[in-house]
Each structure stands twice: as C-alpha cells, then as structure tokens.
Design brief:
This protein is of the alpha/beta class. It is built from 9 helices and 5 strands.
C-alpha cells in the first residue's frame, strides 16, 4: 500500500480506479466479488475503450462518472475499465475529479512485466466461453495494442491519489480477493476481512 502526502482532505466519494496493461486480467471478476460485500453505497462503472472513436468513448465515460459523482455522497465508485494509457486516464478521470474525490488506483499486473501480462490475459480469454467486451477473434489484437500503449502511473497521478493497491494477477482468485479485502480494510473502505470460508463461497458463487 502506498500513500501520498495529502493531509486529511475532505472528499465527496471514494474512487477505486483499475489500471492494467490489457483486458483479461480479472478486474471485472474482482469487481463482481467485491460487489457482494457492499450495499447501495457501491457503484461499478464499466466500459472498455477499444478501437475507434476513442475520444467520443472517453467523453461518454467521463460524463457517466460525473453523473454518478453528482448524485452520490460517501459512496464507493469502482472504475472497471482498461485505463491502460495516460491519455485515456486524463480524459476519463481528470485532475478536477481526483481532487474532489478520494482516488485509489488498483494496478493489476504480472510481476514479470507487460509481455507476461499479455500472455496470461490472452490465455485466459481464449479459455473462456465469452468475455464481457471482447470476442476471441479480437482478443489478440486488442491485448497487443493496449499493452503497446500502456502507461504506468505518473508522478502527478500518484501525487493526487490517496493510495495504490498492486495486485499480482498470477495469484489464485481466492488469494487476490483476500489480499484486496485486506487492502480495503487498511484504507477503511471495508470494516473487516471476510473469513476464508466466506471468501471461498464468494469465489464459488460468482461466475
């Protein structure tokens, strides 16, 4: 867990923004797991910026984020999308939003780097019946392009965030869920880490 030097600011909501070099790393699955732990205060916003019309897609998604933030307070907003490139992140989650809302980045990556992340992601998508946003025939191209355009968090993004949670995608789903819950407790977003039995049940129930 990493924190910046902001001194007790007051925020409207908490934003958990996922970042990964490519789709297929398990971010949407993790969102489904976490959704069972919260009530109405949780809002999951999902949209992948893929090919063509990127500018329009970013504006549309930013508008969705703004509308959600304007109608909620003390809520948890999960940005479940591929914030793989800096231009996309700047367009969808600009500084004006991050200053007003507690922003924590969830970085899902492979310990050996983005090339290994690409291979893992592609193998996962190829082994699934379907993927929420990708056809198998488009998977390799999408993963390759996104990994090519991937931008790690900048110093400015880290400065105006309230933390970073790094997740190793090579871990099992249960290990990832447990670690994520532990981090949410550290950030006072979740009161307690569920028991191992409860976590196992969540993983079993979510398809």
């Amino acid at each position: 867990m990493e924190n910046n030097n902001n001194k007790n600011p007051v925020f409207n909501n908490t934003i958990l923004s996922f970042i990964s070099p490519c789709p297929g790393v398990g971010k949407s699955t993790l969102c489904k797991y976490v959704s069972s732990l919260f009530g109405n205060e949780l809002h999951i916003l999902s949209q992948d910026i893929l090919f063509g019309k990127t500018k329009d897609a970013c504006k549309k998604f930013k508008d969705t984020i703004m509308e959600t933030l304007e109608t909620t307070t003390d809520s948890i907003i999960i940005i479940d999308k591929n914030n793989h490139s800096l231009p996309v992140r700047e367009a969808t989650l600009p500084l004006e939003i991050r200053k007003q809302n507690r922003t924590i980045y969830i970085v899902m990556s492979h310990p050996k780097g983005k090339d290994s992340c690409k291979i893992t992601a592609y193998n996962r998508i190829a082994g699934r019946t379907n993927h929420p946003t990708l056809d198998k025939k488009d998977a390799y191209s999408a993963i390759t392009i996104m990994a090519r355009d991937y931008s790690p968090l900048t110093a400015d993004e880290i400065k105006f965030s309230q933390g970073i949670i790094n997740i190793d995608i090579t871990k099992s789903r249960l290990e990832i869920l447990k670690y994520f819950c532990e981090q949410l407790v550290e950030y006072n977003i979740l009161e307690d880490v569920p028991t191992d039995a409860e976590l196992e049940q969540i993983v079993k129930d979510v398809k």
